[in-house]
Structure formats: C-alpha cells, structure tokens
Amino acid sequence: MALFTIENLSFKYEGENDYTLHNLSFEIKEGETLAVIGKTGSGKSTLLRLLKKSVTPKGELLGKVIFSGNEISEIGFVFQNPYDQSVCETVYDEICFCPQNLGIDPNEIRRRAAEVCSFFGITCLVKKKLSELSGGEIQLVNLAAVSVLSPKAIILDEPYAQLDPISCDKLSTALKKLKNELGTSIIISSHSLYGFLQDIDRVLVLENGRCTEFNNTEKVFSNLFEKKNLLYLVSGSFLPLCGGKLIKTVKDARKYLSENKVSFSPLTSTETPGETALVAKNIYFKYNKKYDDALFGISLEIKKGTVLGLSGANGSGKTTLMKVLAGIKKPYAGRINSYLDSVYLPQDARLTFVKDSVYEDIKFMCEMSEIDESVIQMTLEKYPIFKDIDRLFSKHPYDLSGGELQLSALFKVLVSGKNIIFLDEPTKGLDPYSKIDFIKLINDIKKDNAVVISSHDTELLTEVCDKVGMLFCGELISLESVKDFVFKNSFFTTPLARASRGICDGLALLSQLGGIK
Amino acid sequence: MTIHFKNLNEISGIFYFLISSVLITLSADDFNLLIPCFMICILYGIFLECFKTALFCLPGVILLVLLNPLFNHTGNTPLFYVNDNPYTLEALIVGIRYGMIMLSLIIWFQASFRVLNLNRVFHLLSKILPTTALMLTMIYKSTNDINARREEVSSCQKSFLKPQKGVIKKIKLLSAELLAVSQNALEGSVIKGISMSSRGFELKGKTSVYKIKLKRDDYIFICISLVLLLFYFIGVAKPVFICVFLLLPAIYQIKEEIKWHFLQSKI
How much is the pTM? Predict the structure, then answer.
C-alpha cells in the first residue's frame, strides 16, 4: 500500500526563474526505505521538504503529494544540522515537545518518552542539557524526538553530514531498529550510505531536479557505475572492485576477493619533504585549570610540501591540537617554533566569512592585513583549479554548497599568504564529486604549503596525506607513514584495506584499481 | 557546599528569591541591615562561585560611588570643595549604600540562576503563557550557542588576519564579527522555526509533563519564611530575622545533609 503518492511534482522557489524539481512521479510504500541521492543542489532537500506540508518551502508547486493521515504526528522530519533543529534545553523536554504541542495526556507522554529513550539507548542522556551533547548524540535525540509518536514515516535530510563515522554508525543502528522492529518507512538523503546500505529497498537519483534512476538498490548503483556516474561512490567503495556488482559489507567483499584475483597498483607516497615549517615539543594544554589535560606531551614536526593527517575518535584532541599549533590557543607547557604563518579553517567553513559576499570578504581580509588586492588575481593565475571561482565571488557564503564553500575558503587561505594550513574535517558533508575536487585541490596547493588535515575520513587521509598521526585521550600515540597507518590499523583504516587484509595485502584505495583518478 | 532547591518546588524558589531581593533593596536605609545582607550575599557568591559579574561591575560601581557627591551636595560634613560645591561625607555614604545594594542584587540574581532550574521555571510559566515560556527557553539556550559561535568566528579572524593595530580597525573587525555571528544565529533560527512548526508548535491545547504540585516540604519552607517576614515587619530584632531569612536555603541544605548522613549511617 502506498504511503506517499507523488504525481507530476514540479517546484519553483519564490523569486527564482527556474524550477528546482521537474515533473516527478513515484510512490513510497508503507514500511519501505527509500534513499534519495544526487549532487549538491540537485533538489534532494526540496523534494524531502515537499513530503511534509509543515516544512514545505515557499514557492510555486505543481502536481500533488498525497499522504493520508495527520502529517504532524505521522511524519517525522530530521534536518541536516543537529544543533539548529533542537528547541528545548534538555533532552527530556526535547522528546516531550511534540506530544505536548499535540495536547496528549501528560501521563501518556511520560510513558512514551520512557519507551522511546529505552528503544534508542539514550536513557543516560535524558537529564542532560542538549548543549552538553556531541553532534551524534543530538542527532539521535532528534530522531527519538520525532519517533516518540510512532510515526508512519521518518524523513531524514542528510543526517550524517555533520557527524563523525562512529556517530554515523550509531544513527544507522537506530534507523535499522526503526525499520526492522517498528516497520517505519524511512526516506533518507545522504552522500554516504555505507553502513545503512543493506536496509535500503529503493534508491531515487536526482540530477538537476529530474529523476534519472528509480529502482532497487542493486540496479541503481550498477547502472550508475556503468554510466561512470561518480554518485555510485555513495554506496561505499566496493563497486569498482567487482565490475559494478553491489557488495554491501566488508564480509562479502572479503569473500569476493578470496574467490577472484584483483590487480592493483601499489599505494604510493609522494612525499617530497621541504623546509621545516613548524616544530612542537612536549605540548601540554588544558581548557581550564580544573579540567584534565586536553593535550598531553605532544611533539611533532611539520614540513613544507607535505600533508599531515590527524586521526582519532571524537574528543581525542584533534581540533584542540590544530588550534594550539595554529596559535589560536596557548599551551601551558611546551614549545612551538613556527617558521611560517599559520591559518586554521574550522569544521563549519561558513564561520571564516564575515561579509555578505565571498569577494567582499576577501577584500576585507586584504584591507585589514594590508595585503595588496592584486594578490587575488595572482592567486587565480597561479592555481588553475580556481579558474571558475569568480562565479562564486558575488554569492553570499551561506548560499554556497559544501564543495563551493571549501573551495572559496581555501582560496581565501591562499590569498592570506599563510603557508601552514590547518583544515578541520574538510570533507564533512561533501558529495563524491566535490570530494574528488577537494583531493585535487590539496594535491595542487601542497607544493608551496604545509597542510594539516584532521578527519575521520580514512580514505581522504590515505589519499592525500604523507604522514598520519593518531590521537588518543590527548596523546599522540603514533605518527607514521600513510602506508603504516592504513595497513597496521584494524579499525581506523579504509573499508577496502579491511576487506583485503590477508587476502591481497596492499590494497586500500579505489584509485589503486585504476577506477577513479 | 552546593545550595539547591532539589526537594522543593520552583514556586518556593521563586517566592524566596523575589521576597529576598525586595528585602535587600529595603535594607538600603539602615546600615545595621545592609551590612549583614551584603556579607551574606558575598558568602553565597563565594559558595556558589557567582561573583564574576559583580567583580566585573565593581569598577563601575566604585566610580558611581565617587561621582555621586559631585552631583548631590546634601549633607553637613564637607570633605573638600569642587568648583565651590561641597563634596560631602553624607553624599559619599549614600553612594556607598547604593553601591553595596547594586553589588548584592547582582550576586543575588546570579545565585538565583544557579540555584533554580530555569527550565522548570519556564515550564511553570508555560502553564499560563506557553509561547512566552518557549521564547524565553529559546533565548536562554541560544545565548550559549551564540557565545560559542562568536568565539569560533573570532578565532578564525585571529587566524586569518594580522594582529590589528588602532582602535578604528579593531572596531571595524569587531562589528564585522558581530554581524557574521548574528547572521549565523538567524540562519539557525530559521531551521529552528521550521522544526518547531513541523512538530506542532502552532497548535492549540498544549499540555505539560511537569507537575506543579506543592509538597509538604514546600509548605513548611513557605510557612517558616512567612513567620520570619512577619517578625521582620513587626520590627523586632530586624537584622536577626533578615539574616535567618536570607540564610534559609543554607540552613535547609544543612538539614538535608544531616538527614542524609543519618540515613547513610542506618544503611
């Protein structure tokens, strides 16, 4: 039985000339899990928001979205940014918010809240303030808050975009429980479905607001692979391994590798060490004298022309270490000798812009730092990858997509003339195309600069870094070549390295197969 | 020692803090009342670690105390003359009194924020004015978010720009940062608004999971407070009664600690 029926749906935002969605028609069955994938700006979020009337954006809507039932209580909606959508101060209030608004009896609300907290395993968080929780925990609370009324469908708009892999796993587990134990329909848009792929029934591919594929998971990804559409990377990294056959887990990939011979080029390291850019010796740092040390006796050296990666779990001290090395925070013990100027890009790259357009902001930086404006033109000419960036200059930084934002922020960094670049989770929320562009960009700029990247994305670290350091409880427990990092680690490594271990050692990246350049 | 109203309803807490702040203000005319009030406020400030704002305001308060006699010339004991106008001891003392009241009230209100569970206070309000209560919760919550964002924006600018010299440049940078933070906050509030409306915020007939029922402890606490207030207003040993009243939460806490100690020894 169809839960949603979408008939000839087209949509145009208020004040815009072009339609964002074009003539979409499909059905979503009860209990079905549908993934909506596509490049940034393809209309995924718009489509999801049109499925629930109360979150529909303003604009011209043609066609029909049919849902039989009370959309407030029977459709839950989880947004991309976990922090912005929560309303109340504590977890318990957040969970009770919707049923209270619907005027449900308080005793009934208490029972449902207790049930939902146990179901999602967040009982220990109930009395906590939302401001004390991590992004992953808040996203789980948001999911619990929309599930409290046992909705028929839950819509999630890029729920993984702001989360680290461990939080992504937790969220995937919760979604699996919702689907398998309660039979809830899940409609999800994401740039990475690895971990939740097994539970997806059908996939809808959007390109420029048009539906180009709508079929079961296996068929859609195989078709994308055949068409050399990089959106197949949304499924994880096993497709090119077996010529387009969808493998959903590491276990299946190991089985395939043990039965078939795969040829691949060895993992290469392009390290060409230059002059020393920064030396840190025995750094100790704490946020408050009452707190424990956030960084504990860290020593490292950063060289020009290299990319250093920082890996580790949430709260292990990656961001703190970058801020200390970049000179934003001061260590209480230890010494940092910086021979070049440092610049730090936060996880939310929007925070680097303080003016209404990208160009205005860069001009403002030039004015404040007494940099000649001709440097902007010189940077454009020096790095060919920025050849199209002038189309972004007039845009407001908040209107840029994730990839465009990273590109603009890195352009600003290069104009600033600072040579040690610290990037905090730079690929979070990027689509496969933007991620590949980002890798090209890093390879391009690393020649004249020293780059430090903190990321949970082991594929990114393996692809671009020369050395990778691993932090644990504020301590740098290892600092080794990328080869050692990827092949010695069992958990903090790429899915492909996990699959190939002991069967065809040395395989860690898709680029080794000659699939993606 | 942490003073809290864990076993008491928020109504008792609000009642206590409102009455006590009126009493502190009323004590301005009498040093016998003002000094013990001021000392108790400082004690609470130390125990609850909430005298930072008072310390921040201290230079301003001292300035006001010193400036008051320049505009107010009443009094019979001139200390010196400024442009033929007397700078009197009496005017200085009045300034000191009001300075002490200001500092006491700042500490007192900060203490009340520490002790009361604001979230439950807003819920209490939500029974009467649901929309106002939610707005207050959101404002209270977003203050922390905005502070964190401001710090992040500021550290980014610090990283991108050379250290700024000159007041005009510093003001220019600060205003740009504040504008960016407000834009970021507004962007977030749009999503928040949509999230609220998608979860039925605009619907009528809301309910609340919080119980506002007063317990035996609340009645005892309010009764003792009323008796103390009665003696205070009759005018018998005013300083004693005001001290006991202001120390009531600490006394209540000590009683709870003793009770817990005996419960533990029985276990």
Answer: 0.79
